[in-house]
Design goal:
It contains twelve helices and nine strands. It is an alpha/beta fold. The chain has one domain: 2-enoyl-CoA Hydratase, Chain A, domain 1 (Alpha-Beta Complex), CATH 3.90.226. The protein is elongated. About 0% of the residues have low confidence.
Length: about 325
């Protein structure tokens, strides 16, 4: 009778979770219904200067004639530069990266970086608007490598963090020549975490056996249903430490003046604290950076839209929703 009661309670919990999962899927299905089928891949190019010029003109309608003369000279200079090949204004390519657990935006980032490298000149620059709480190691490692391609080609890279660049997000940010963070942005969390549930005790209590066979001593250190050993746990921790060592070495390479031992504790800091520690170079927002450069650079936003199936888009949205609700891992995670 006790077994039946426990089984009924377990079944009720499972049904509750399935019901919640179905509700979430229904919501996601409604969202995805607006964009059915597969999206064709495309590179979206938008000139941002007209937008900011229009905003400025509306604000400056009642300004003095001297200021109007300044705008007139600026427009004339742009026209002159348009007729001179080498005298053109340098360009600022504006990219955006919104991270999830798997760093799914890396595919788009790869194409955007390639587009920049195919057309950028020596005086062009890149601004990446980055937002990510971190995620899985391979995805964020590849994203950081894509940004390193810009530095290897001598193209100046600025990363702007308006809200969060933690764990894998900071792994990407530290590649930049300059990091600018908003005063209350979350920065850091230089650490690695690996976790999984274990139901061995529950199975054993109900006389349910689970067998796992492997070839290779450390093919599976920890399991969900089997009995974990101290040796397996120790090897798993060693794997996490190895990733953490690579993480610290990566940061030391791109930010040699940073006291890595001081900040590589898994903690996170707000923007002002991060500036004092040397994790970022300046305080500000991405909007300030764009407004600052609109008079001396051509601002060009690049957004690559990869071909993605409806099923894949649903999975990405669902994982992102779980991360925001705190039901899934958001730190720089090593998964088995």
């Amino acid at each position: 009778m006790e077994f039946v009661q426990e089984y009924a309670l377990f079944l009720a919990r499972v049904l509750t979770l399935l019901l919640a999962f179905a509700v979430v899927l229904g919501m996601l299905g409604g969202m995805a219904g607006r964009t059915r089928g597969r999206q064709r891949e495309r590179l979206e190019v938008e000139a941002l200067n007209p937008r900011y010029d229009a905003m400025a003109r509306q604000i400056e309608q009642g300004a003095q004639k001297a200021r109007k003369g300044l705008w007139r000279r600026l427009r004339e200079r742009r026209k002159r530069n348009a007729h001179k090949g080498e005298a053109r204004l340098p360009r600022l390519f504006v990219l955006s990266f919104e991270g999830d657990i798997r760093a799914s935006a890396t595919e788009a980032l790869r194409e955007e970086v390639s587009a920049v490298l195919a057309s950028a000149r020596r005086d062009d620059e890149v601004l990446l608007r980055l937002e990510s709480p971190g995620g899985m190691v391979p995805g964020y490692g590849l994203a950081a490598s894509q940004l390193a391609r810009l530095r290897d080609r001598g193209i100046r890279l600025t990363v702007a963090v308006d809200r969060v660049a933690a764990s894998g997000g900071y792994l990407m940010a530290c590649v930049a020549d300059r990091i600018v963070a908003a005063p209350f942005a979350i920065i850091g969390s230089i650490g690695v975490v690996g976790q999984l549930p274990n139901f061995h005790g529950l199975l054993k209590r109900h006389d349910i056996e689970f067998e796992l066979h492997t070839a290779g001593k450390h093919k599976r250190d920890l399991t969900v249903f089997g009995e974990n050993t101290e040796e397996g746990r120790a090897h798993f921790r060693d794997s996490l430490q190895a990733v953490h060592d690579l993480f610290r070495g990566h940061i030391a390479r791109f930010r040699p003046r940073l006291d890595v031992e001081r900040v590589a504790t898994g903690e996170h800091w707000l923007g002002e604290q991060a500036l004092a520690l040397g994790l970022v170079d300046d305080l500000g927002t991405s909007d300030d950076l764009l407004l600052e450069r609109r008079e001396r650079m051509e601002l060009i936003a690049l957004t690559y839209h990869p071909s993605t199936s409806l099923r894949r888009r649903l999975a990405i949205v669902f994982e992102s929703a779980l991360t925001r609700l705190g039901l899934s891992q958001s730190p720089f995670a090593a998964r088995k």
